Amino acid sequence: MSSHRPAHDAAGTTTPPPPLRHHGAEDDTRYIRMTVKLTAMIGGPFFLLTVILHPARDGHDIAAGAQWYAFTHSMEAISLLIQAVCLAGVVALVMNRFGPRGLTTLYTALTGTMLWFGLIVFDGGHNPVTARYAPDLVHTSKDIDIEGGIIVLAANIVFPLGYVLLALLLNRHGQRWTGLLLGFGGVVYAIGGTASLFGFGPHSMTTSVIEITGAAPYALGYVLLGRAFGQARQLSA
């Protein structure tokens, strides 16, 4: 076992030991970039898959397949958590580059993603129970209470707002198509997930069509986001 001890030169002056080797800032950034790229490549496509696999929304069909309904919503919630990790990594990478307004935008998108995570968890747990006892109430305005209404309203405001702001931010920093896909996809998906559902009713296939129409570019936007922020040359540009 060796240790660094002060050395003495001919004049008796003490020479400090050499500094210990440690990973530099570039090494730390590399791990964050890897995390951003990996979570974007998983979170975006996985989210699209769960939206495609979403079962029928009317109460009787949910009651007949309650376990599958809960499972798909659990998987969608996991995909949103993965996306949240991706956005948190982006925040860490651009902390000193995008300024206060840019960070506010990223935190808004991150908050909206977590609120939508809460909405999906609430949906996947609440509706199978309601469908078992009162299937005609599922996905109707009669089934919205104060607690559920707060989650639904907050998610439907902050989620699309966050991704629209993110689209504008990315456009200013040279990521036009990435921002456009995320902003457009996030807004269309949110419209399909709530406004279209209550507007056309749980029996209509319009909701599924709108959701998938939004989820597809949204997922692609995440893939491009991971590619952009997962490369060192993009960060140093």
Structure description:
Helices cover 75% and strands 2% of the residues. It is mostly helical. It contains eight helices and two strands. Helix 1 (25-52) packs antiparallel against helix 3 and helix 3 (66-93) runs antiparallel to helix 4 (99-133). The chain has a two-stranded antiparallel ribbon with strand order 1-2. It is elongated, with a radius of gyration of 24 Å. It has one domain. A hairpin with a 5-residue loop joins strand 1 and strand 2.
The overall number of domains is 1
Provide the spatial order of strands within the biggest beta sheet: 1-2
> What is the structural class?
mainly alpha
- Beta-strand segment tally: 2
Outline the biggest β-sheet.
2 strands, antiparallel
Instruction: Quote the distance from N terminus to C terminus.
Output: 44 Å
Give the CA-based shape: elongated
Instruction: Determine the mean pLDDT.
Output: 85
User: How many distinct helices?
Assistant: 8
Transmembrane segments: 38-57, 77-95, 102-122, 150-170, 177-200, 206-225
Keywords: Membrane, Transmembrane, Transmembrane helix
Region (Disordered): 1-25
List the helices and strands and how they pair.
Elements: E1 7-8, E2 14-15, H1 25-52, H2 59-64, H3 66-93, H4 99-133, H5 146-172, H6 176-200, H7 206-229, H8 232-235
Antiparallel strand pairs: 1-2
Helix pairs in contact: 1-3, 1-7, 3-4, 4-5, 5-6, 6-7
Region (Disordered): 1-25
Transmembrane segments: 38-57, 77-95, 102-122, 150-170, 177-200, 206-225
Keywords: Membrane, Transmembrane, Transmembrane helix
